[in-house]
Write a structure and sequence with these properties.
By secondary structure, this protein is mainly beta. It is 8% helix and 41% strand. The strands form 6 sheets. Strands 1, 4, 6, 8 and 9 form a 5-stranded mixed sheet that branches. A 5-stranded antiparallel sheet has the order 11-10-12-16-15, with no helix packed on it. It folds into 3 domains: 132 residues, Carboxypeptidase-like, regulatory domain (Immunoglobulin-like, Sandwich), CATH 2.60.40; 124 residues, Immunoglobulin-like; 100 residues, Immunoglobulin-like, CATH 2.60.40.4070. β10 and β11 form a beta hairpin. It is elongated, with a radius of gyration of 30 Å.
Length: 381
């Protein structure tokens, strides 16, 4: 018994440590449900299957966790059980929510529970039961453990969407009709169900991805383990926009596992279509600056455009001479809505290396012949 208490204490410390980490990394190492099951004069508890679950539908779907009461179970102690509540990914552990514990009724009609309790969040909860005639639950459906696929990367055009970098103060700008690509990977052997991948824009009906949308599938034992889907937002059904102001859109991606078709992953991207006149949003950032053409090779001039446009990046010497003009077509790098990176290798228009110094730069709309932004970059070789 002392060894068991010590073991639970260690598990609890691990769980609490995991929950502290969860505040940053959103995962829990372990959480224990334990307790005793008292014998009835007519029927002992040891050897009974004990079940931890959320509701009756979990029992029907196979979403639960079990142990054996007594020495042959995880506790190794008579009349005691020990359940790791986080061992079935289909049964989420939510602090404060109600769950049930019960034994499967034995052939003699005796069982224990079901007994409801709240998950406390302390790392373990103790739920004690007693055997009684007519108590317990029927044998549930076989346990099903499924793991949903993962969205490894989502791109709008050539730009990767990083959820943690997007906020109302830092919008992710895109065009109204971007080409979207999502790289999806199955978890372990569960794979990805290629027939149940969808993209939904705002509250419109989801677009179901057809085989034509699927790229680079990798199969193993007849199950698709990873793939990419690409989707061009149609011209006749673009992202919502307003000519006078920025418009926020929600793009939701959904994918299911291939084995059961029930484990689902949903990724939500918040993207903005700019309104108003063509403009550069925020500062222009050359990096590195100063830069050495010999050591660095190039500097990248980064800026955010409000919409697709024909753009020219002009580098000007201190004497006012345009030493380099870089043309960017609308919709390509340098001329697409959102963040752009235009490289300059430190050479002039005839391919000669420019001298050391501070160079001014301008970003110009070719169609409107309008100055959109200025920047400076230093060459030091």
């Amino acid at each position: 018994m002392k060894r068991l208490v010590a073991f639970i204490a260690i598990l609890s410390l691990l769980a609490l440590a995991g929950m502290a980490v969860a505040q940053i990394y959103t995962f829990v190492v372990i959480y224990t449900i334990t307790g005793t099951v008292s014998d009835h004069a007519s029927s002992g508890a040891d050897g009974s299957k004990i079940v931890y679950y959320r509701d009756d539908s979990d029992l029907t779907n196979g979403y639960y966790v079990t142990d054996i009461v007594g020495a042959t179970g995880a506790s190794g102690t008579a009349n005691r059980y020990l359940i790791n509540a986080t061992s079935n990914p289909n049964l989420p552990l939510v602090v404060g929510n109600k769950y049930w514990v019960a034994t499967v009724q034995k052939p003699d009609g005796y069982g224990a529970g079901p007994k409801q309790f709240n998950v406390s969040g302390t790392g373990y909860d103790v739920v004690n039961l007693s055997m009684a005639y007519g108590d317990g639950i029927a044998e549930p459906a076989p346990i099903v453990i499924t793991k949903p696929p993962l969205f490894e990367q989502i791109k709008f055009g050539e730009r990767v969407y990083f959820k943690h970098l997007v906020s109302p103060d830092r919008p992710f700008y895109t065009s109204a009709t971007p080409v979207i690509r999502a790289d999806i990977k199955g978890t372990e052997a569960f794979g990805v169900d290629t027939n149940k991948i969808s993209i939904q824009i705002n509250d419109r009906d989801p677009y179901k991805m057809a085989s034509a949308n699927i790229l680079e599938p990798v199969e193993e034992a007849g199950v698709t383990q990873s793939l990419s889907v690409t989707f061009s937002v149609p011209e006749n059904d673009p992202l919502s926009s307003d000519p006078d102001q920025d418009t926020v859109n929600t793009v939701t991606f959904t994918a299911y596992d291939a084995i059961t078709g029930t484990a689902v992953t949903t990724e939500v991207c918040t993207v903005t279509v700019a309104g108003g006149p063509l403009r550069v949003i925020g500062a222009v950032l050359p990096y590195p600056s100063p830069f050495s053409p010999t050591k660095d090779g190039k500097t990248e001039i980064q800026f955010t455009l409000s919409k697709d446009a024909e753009i020219e990046v002009i580098v000007v010497s201190i004497a006012g001479e345009a030493v380099r003009r870089i043309h960017c077509s609308a919709g390509t790098e340098g001329g697409r809505a959102g963040t752009n990176k235009v490289a300059w290798d430190g050479k002039n228009m005839i391919g000669e290396q420019v001298g050391n110094g501070v160079y001014a730069g301008t970003i110009v709309s070719r169609e409107e012949n309008k100055l959109l932004a200025k920047f400076k970059v230093t060459v030091f070789d």
